[in-house]
Amino acid sequence: MRLNPARRSLLPRLLLGLLALFVLIQLVPYGRAHSNPPEQATPNWDSPQTEALFTRACADCHSHATVWPWYSHVAPVSWLVQRHVDEGRSRFDINVPGFGEDAGRAGQEVGEGNMPEPTYMPLHPNARLTDTEREQLSSGLNATFGRE
Q: Which of 43, 45, 67, 74 is least surrounded, with the fewest CB atoms within 10 Å of its CB?
């Protein structure tokens, strides 16, 4: 099956248009304000193991120690990463006084498998928790932050 000449000339223009759109969306300022504000508080962890598991699986979105990988500077992925960090910090942040409105539910969320978010896992395989680690982190968060 051969493409007619009109369709053959459409493909390069479509690809050029997509490339131009990709370049243009890089000008959108959202998703580039990567900051790690100063710590205002730190939790009194129930154990070093809870702290280590939290750091490995949760800290990028729920602390002021976010690691901003290279792809967090490239739109549209940067928009998703920024939104996740903004939402995570607004609900539960170990570096603000009171730790956020969802601090008491953090252990439950981890225990039920709702956290870390599935969209976070493909590019952060070290955040994958075994069933035992999930249980340990859930219990440790409940002990550290209490439970609603």
A: 67
> Are the C-beta atoms of 46 and 138 separated by less than 8 Å?
no
DSSP 37: P
More confident residue, 28 or 15: 15
Residues 66-81: tens digit of each pLDDT: 999 999 999 998 998 9
0.85 exceeded by pTM: no
Integer Cα distance of 130 and 134 in angstroms: 6
User: Distance between alpha carbon 131 and the CA centroid of its chain, in Å?
Assistant: 21
pLDDT in tens, 40-49: 999 999 999 9
| CB 99, CB 109: distance < 8 Å | no
Cis geometry, peptide bond prior to residue 116 (ω within 30 degrees of 0)? yes
Contact 30, 84 (CB under 8 A): no
